[in-house]
Amino acid sequence: MVAQFQELPSMTVEEYLEWEAKQELRHEYINGEIIAMTGSTIPHNKIALNFYRTLYPHLKARGCDAYVSDVKVQDRQNQCFFYPDLAVTCNEEDLNARNFIEHPSVIIEVLSPSTAAYNRGEKFGYYRRISSLQEYVLVDSEAQRVEVYRRGEGKMWAYFPYEANETIQLPSIEFECEIATLYEGVNWEENA
Questions:
Q1: C-beta of residue 159 within 8 angstroms of C-beta of residue 149
Q2: From the centroid of its chain, how far is CA 133?
Q3: pTM of the shown model
Q4: Residues 176, 177, 182, 188: what is their CA dihedral angle, to the nearest 10 degrees?
Q5: Within 13 A of 55's CA, how many CA atoms are on the CB side?
Q6: How wide is the angle at C-alpha 122 spanned by C-alphas 25 and 65, nearest 5°?
Q7: First CA to last CA across the chain, in angstroms?
Q8: Does the pLDDT value for residue 6 go beyond 70?
Q9: CA–CA separation, 21 vs 16, rounded Å?
Q10: Beta-ladder partners of 158
């Protein structure tokens, strides 16, 4: 998804949740500031769906679930709400939630040229503060590349890059898949 800052009045969390429930488009919320989430490309969407389809049976067998881009993740510490492309949780509260999840163990963002810097920088800064988060996955939509950031001791995060023909590993949920699976059916040609 592409993030666009909008000129809207600052809102409290309660005002945002009430307002957002009535909107046709999705909006992220960062400390009172509203960010509109616009549409994505077909490759972006296909990659996110491929990842979900691959994760689903694995997570279901473990009593976990994955949520796609229409489900909010709350960062309670920073009064923020985000719409990641995929969020994985095994937390009982999240599995029974109705409006948003608070305890993701894995967050996955599919990168586009317009969102890559934001997702690697400022957004990752917020995500790192979610205490349940163990892995942050960035999937390139322009080439077969995946980056995994894995929580270590204290404030340390280890970086694991993957390229074509490699197998992605997410130990926090005991998951592995070939990178090619995520890019199945992706058309790399520009539209005429």
A1: yes
A2: 11
A3: 0.90
A4: 130
A5: 26
A6: 60
A7: 23
A8: no
A9: 8
A10: 150
